[in-house]
Design a protein that fits this description.
Helices cover about 80% and strands about 0% of the residues. It is built from 17 helices and no strands. It is globular. It starts with a helix and ends in a 9-residue tail after the last helix.
């Protein structure tokens, strides 16, 4: 392990920790907000709120359409036309957001007519999300700022929730309005921090061919995002159905701790999108950079895994209560998934940078299919839900091996199309 860590540079760790620190703050602020909402809304209204947020999550994927990842991965390529690209990017994002709002409202009017207005309000936040510039900060190497600016949105939301909670005027309509307003504040703040360095935005610089190219490249990424959404929560939903709500609660606590520990993995993936595009014209250098980053992430993931194991044994009973004793046992089953996810997230970004979105989509379809098969098989042969978490880790390891094999096969041949 020491030999592994000696091969990496300290500045890389600082970049990842800087972005991860902001994400930790974001997670903490969101946790405080949810604890207030649980008391203010009650179980039924909180359930409705969670449904609205779940629909919003899918709506945000559709409005993004993979375009944020594409512009981030291409921005530092010396052949990239930033003026045409950024104007086409904003035009596509706005059009997709408006489409999501309209379709979402029609779906809600049919399925949840009593909450169609609230859902429409929630989905309008995708308009402000489409205009934000946190990707521009990452592309320009401002990792510390890009990480901490993420805390602005949940902080603004938390302040609004506290104010209206104290006024005893916190209902579902007020809540979704505050949610949208928090995204507006976040979007405006990213423009202030960008300090006018963005290329000129004008409808005259819009390029229809460039928009077509972006949407064509983005479609596979959209599918990957939707599949990833399924990968993140399919096992939990199935456990609730197969084993009951109490078992799902134990699994949820363990899974939440694992996800919290992956903030640095998410940060490294975002950094990779902006940084690896510098090396796409030098195949050998690109492969060496990928190897170097993988060594760093593997070392970091192993150290954090040990920390999470110790933390869970000591603090889960203290923070969540003795009734969650089984969550402590489940943590050990999740560790393989935790370590492998640090590598798979980074490699996913690398596949985007080298333009292999369709191959990535195929791998993720296989990934989801394998997870479903393992989950169902385990449920038929064992009552230990930890085996499902272990199976999830196996799937993640297979994903890493498939992407590594694809990237490093025939190293003499150029990866980029």
């Amino acid at each position: 392990m020491l030999k592994l860590l000696k091969t990496v540079r300290f500045d890389k760790i600082v970049n990842i920790l800087s972005m991860g620190g902001g994400r930790i703050a974001q997670t903490l602020l969101s946790f405080i907000t949810v604890s207030i909402l649980a008391r203010a809304l009650g179980a039924e209204q909180l359930g409705i709120y969670s449904i609205l947020m779940a629909i919003f999550a899918y709506g945000s994927h559709f409005s993004d359409f993979g375009l944020r990842s594409i512009i981030l991965s291409e921005w530092n390529n010396k052949h990239y036309d930033s003026k045409s690209g950024v104007n086409s990017y904003f035009a596509c994002r706005l059009a997709l957001s408006l489409l999501v709002c309209c379709i979402g409202y029609l779906i809600a009017a049919f399925l949840y007519p009593e909450y169609d207005f609230e859902l429409f309000i929630v989905l309008t936040s995708t308009i402000f999300i489409s205009l934000q510039l946190d990707w521009f900060l990452i592309a320009n190497g401002r990792y510390n700022l890009a990480g901490w600016v993420l805390a602005i949105r949940p902080l603004a939301y938390l302040v609004g929730v506290i104010v209206f909670y104290q006024l005893k005027f916190l209902n579902l309509t007020v809540l979704v309005t505050l949610f949208v307003f928090s995204w507006l504040i976040f979007s405006l703040s990213t423009y202030l921090y960008a300090k006018g360095n963005l290329p000129k935005v004008s409808i005259r610089l819009f390029s229809f061919p460039e928009s077509q190219r972006l949407l064509a490249k983005g479609l596979p990424l959209l599918m990957v995002a939707l599949i990833s959404q399924g990968i993140q929560n399919a096992d939990l939903i199935f456990i609730g159905y197969r084993y009951g709500a109490e078992e799902a609660g134990q699994y949820f606590i363990a899974n939440s701790i694992i996800i919290a520990g992956m903030v640095f993995a998410n940060a490294s993936s975002q950094i990779a999108l902006g940084k690896m595009s510098h090396y796409v014209d030098d195949h050998e250098l690109l492969l060496n950079k990928i190897k170097s980053e993988m060594r760093l992430l593997l070392g970091m993931a192993c150290i954090l895994a040990v920390g999470i194991y110790i933390f869970s044994n000591l603090f889960i009973p203290l923070f969540f209560g003795d009734q969650y004793f089984k969550a402590v046992e489940l943590i050990s089953y999740f560790l393989a998934y935790f370590v492998a996810s640090y590598i798979s997230g980074f490699l996913t970004s690398c596949m985007i940078v080298i333009g292999k979105q369709k191959k990535l989509m195929a791998i993720n379809i296989l990934r989801l299919s394998l997870l479903i098969v393992i989950t169902i098989s385990v449920s038929q042969t064992s009552n230990n839900i930890g085996m499902i978490a272990l199976g999830k880790g196996f799937v993640e390891i297979v994903t890493v091996l498939l992407i590594v094999k694809y990237i490093f096969r025939n190293q003499s041949n150029k990866l980029i199309d």
